[in-house]
Amino acid sequence: MLITKDLSVYYGGIHALRGVDINVEDGKIITLIGANGAGKSTMLNSIVGLVKSSGTILWDDENIAGRDTKDIVASGMVLVPEGRHVFPNLTVDENLSLGAYFRKDKGRIKRDRERCFELFPRLKERVRQSAGTLSGGEQQMLAVGRGLMANPRLLMLDEPSLGLAPLVSKMIFDIIREINKRGTTVLLIEQNARAALEVADYAYVLETGKITMRDTGAALLNDERVRKAYLGED
Q1: Taking the model in full, what pTM does it have?
Q2: How many domains does the chain have?
Q3: Does residue 56 sit within a domain?
Q4: What pLDDT is attached to residue 19?
Q5: Do 190 and 159 touch, CB atoms closer than 8 A?
Q6: Number of continuous H segments (helices) and E segments (strands) in the chain
Q7: CB burial of residue 215 (10 Å; 0-12, 13-18, 19+)
Q8: Pairing outcome for strands 210-216 and 202-207
Q9: What is the C-alpha to C-alpha distance for residues 59 and 234, in angstroms, rounded to an integer?
Q10: Biggest alpha carbon–alpha carbon distance for the chain
Q11: Which candidate in 1, 18, 199, 210 could, as Cys together with 26 as Cys, close a disulfide (CB 3.0–4.6 Å)?
Q12: DSSP alpha helices (H): ranges in the chain?
């Protein structure tokens, strides 16, 4: 589905990504873990064309490197950015409608809105409420729901549990599993390494712009180096 080959990004003199190769298989949950500043968000931003990069980005065997972000989104790839970035002065319903901006299939848009409310009943309760008045957890639900309204085949999530209470964070990861179960491939960037590895079919460790480890989520969860560096275990 998605393959990057020798993906590199420079910010001035800083080499933020250093020849990164990943493979996101159709129907899987893939995660990248790493410390702050490792290049995780840069990775997602480069894939959707928000950051200029060199190397190859294969999406369904077609190189999309250098394409406009709107064309990448229209092709079925959606990024839910770190920090939620909902439109605070618009209602929940208006935020969701913006997620379907590129779509013309009105019947399916209505169906997907109802499916979104199935996943996030709290959003249905607050459908006419301004997004800026929602709690942090509710805003994260809205950000994910807005992404789903684009009907993505690949949903990329950047730090979806950031700043959330543990119970809300657990609910978000349960929903990620459910989204995947319903047929959407997920590429997940997450600092909560334990939670990310628990849901991941396959995972990569990114350190200072380079992939240093790769294996199944279960294998990395039990790897001594990962447990010491990212899970806080001696």
Answers
A1: 0.94
A2: 1
A3: yes
A4: 96
A5: yes
A6: 10, 10
A7: middle
A8: antiparallel
A9: 40
A10: 54
A11: 1
A12: 40-47, 69-74, 92-99, 106-119, 121-125, 136-148, 166-181, 193-199, 217-221, 224-230
Domain of residue 11, residue span = 1-68+188-234
Asked, for residue 150, whether it belongs to a domain, the answer is no
Contact 96, 103 (CB under 8 A): no
CA 76, CA 97: separation in Å to the nearest integer? Answer: 17
The ranges of the chain with pLDDT < 70 are 234
Q: CA triplet 162, 128, 80: central angle to 5 degrees?
A: 30
Q: Which residue matches tokens 């250093």? A: 18
Residue 32 sits in a domain whose CATH number is 3.40.50.300
The tokens describing 131, both together, are 């997004």
State the chain's mean pLDDT as an integer: 94
32 located within any domain: yes
If phi > 0 it is left, if psi is from -120 to 50 it is alpha, else beta; for residue 4 that is beta
Token pair recorded at residue 188: 């997940």
